[in-house]
Amino acid sequence: MSSVRAVGVIPARWASSRFPGKPLVEIAGRPMIQHVVEGARQASRLSRVLVATDDERIARACTAFGAEVAMTSADHPTGSDRLAEVARSLDEEVIVNIQGDEPMIEGFVVDAAVDALLEDSSLPMATVVHAAEDAGLSDPNRVKVVMTNNGDALYFSRSPIPHRRDDTAPRPIWQHVGLYAYRRPFLLEYVHLTPTPLERSEALEQLRALEHGHRIRCAVIDGWQSVPVDTPADVATVEAALADRQERGHGR
């Protein structure tokens, strides 16, 4: 398992509809993309970490703090397409898509996705989940997932799933973290799959893989919570979470 080479790629674009320039928003004195790069670099499974962007402002900022940058086309409809463009020029067997809006990311979370992928040679991709907080169950930006007994994803939704009919309903509800470890050949195949009805309905790209019959293994993470930045209002929440982590004496 340890001989398999993996690379982390962080797609970063300027033109977010809800939050233009989001990768460079300042969080605790540093651009958000720097927090993501530094967290990803803690992963023992990654040989290196790249930022994939089409924007010179993001590229300059990343170069300034020492990140490796791969310039990409500006025409990609999704982060996965941007990832695949970079992957075509790489020779690592595993490509890890690390979301640029996850400034709380830590190395062991990335490692968990890679380890989950490598558990089974037939798996094309893997991701990570953690127990959802009740406050986020109704938030469509916090994606929920249901799984099989062996940890393969059954479905992802922006709605709370499963529905809790009574107090005997399954607990916890699992929240998905948008981090994916792909086997490189599958990633290059995946971006050519036809977009699917459920993918369009939920606006969740990973449903394309499930609808085309591919498995996604989910690694369950304990002791860590995703605090993504979806809107400007989320910045203060992340800064508070970072301060709390530093007070507890671990993390960056």
Provide an overview of this structure.
Helix content is 29%, strand content 23%. It has eight helices and eleven strands. Strand 2 and strand 3 (30-31) form a beta hairpin. The longest helix is centred in the last third of the chain and has 14 residues, at 234-247. It is globular, with a radius of gyration of 17 Å. The two termini are 28 Å apart. The mean pLDDT is 93.
Secondary structure: elements and pairs:
Blueprint: E1 6-12, E2 26-27, E3 30-31, H1 32-40, E4 46-53, H2 56-64, E5 68-71, H3 79-87, E6 94-98, H4 107-118, E7 125-131, E8 144-147, E9 153-157, E10 174-183, H5 184-190, H6 197-202, H7 206-211, E11 216-220, H8 234-247
Parallel strand pairs: 1-4, 1-6, 4-5, 7-11
Antiparallel strand pairs: 2-3, 6-10, 7-10, 8-9, 8-10
> Quick one: overall form?
globular
Helix fraction, binned, reads 25-40%
The percentage of residues in β strands lies in: 15-25%
Sheet with the most strands, sense and barrel status = 9 strands, mixed
Spatial extent as radius of gyration: 17 Å
Query: What's the total count of β strands?
Result: 11
Contiguous uncertain segments of 5+ residues: none
Q: Give the count of helical stretches.
A: 8
What is the overall pLDDT average? 93
CATH architecture: Alpha-Beta Complex
Provide the CATH topology: Spore Coat Polysaccharide Biosynthesis Protein SpsA, Chain A
* CATH C-level name: Alpha Beta
Terminus-to-terminus distance: 28 Å
Coarse structural class: alpha/beta
CATH homologous superfamily caption: Spore Coat Polysaccharide Biosynthesis Protein SpsA, Chain A
Q: In sequence order, what are the helices and strands, one letter per element?
A: EEEHEHEHEHEEEEHHHEH
Number of domains: 1
